[in-house]
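Hey,
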Amino acid sequence: MTTPKQRGFFMPAEWHPHSHCRMAWPTRMAVWYSEAGLKAACRAYATVAKAIARFEPVTMLVNADQQLDATALCGPTVKILLAPHDDSWHRDSGPTFVISKQGELAGVNWQFNNYGNKPQLLEEEYARDKALAKYLLETLNIPCFDAPFVLEGGSFHVDGQGTALVTEQCLLNPNRNPQLSRAEIEAGLMAYLGVEKVIWLGEGLLNDDTDGHVDTIACFVAPGKVLAAITDDPNDVNYAPLQDNLARLKAATDARGRAFEIHTVSIPPAHYLGEMRMALSYVNFYIANGGIVMCSFNDPDYDQAAKNTISALFPDREVVQIPALDIYTGGGGVHCITQQQPLPIADEDD
């Protein structure tokens, strides 16, 4: 089986220019707990889509029976594409796009098992999500690489220069690839993302349904620069795991041998969905062409401080903050519901 790396493909950093942002419309009521929760999620998704559409084209994947509602909420700036799906975390169930130095574009179709088969759904209940990446690539006539292992797009971040960030909690979880060793998982990431080095963080936030996707706790913001989530409250249950991740980043170097310039942003104080604390994070933002679309959590002081931090890290981009509690009711944030399609131009130093 030929891999992307063997063909000269690699995943560029998120700040590489995009041709599109792709999203998928909320559809499974059980994810949002009620009809009211689903409707609130749809409104929030539409708000995110319209915000991103100010900076780059956005396509919303929609099931046929929701086309009219999605069209009405998203408005004329968002393109609607009919595509069968079960859930709406397109970062995870959609394709990951890679490019080559020859200006080619392709997509990676990861195996998808609904986050380790949680909640314990029958396979047919996420069958459309399992088939979504390949279906979309075929519809768009984009070449497809079928990866031979389970992975979700939110479980890694890349710098476009050979380095990937992941977590042990997610990628080493026996509910994904129990047959693979740590070294074999690293080899798979290198082969399908075109990276040279994998940096392992530890755990994600409490009650993260994804088993600790890295896009909630750390991300690259420029070559050699990382933004990490922290909390200043030593009594917060997330304090020790986030400090451990920070220590790992301070001890690490990237694929080019650089020590990281590390910036931090505090997670907000605890918010609860019933009795369950939500896994909220400002790191879960989307880098658009000329813009940043990020979460706010109805906590003015923390929301503003996070916006100030991210604005300083991206002085050439307009930062737009979107109320995200209705999205996080389903288990994720702005980054989780979006997937960039890079322009097929290659520059490893972008």
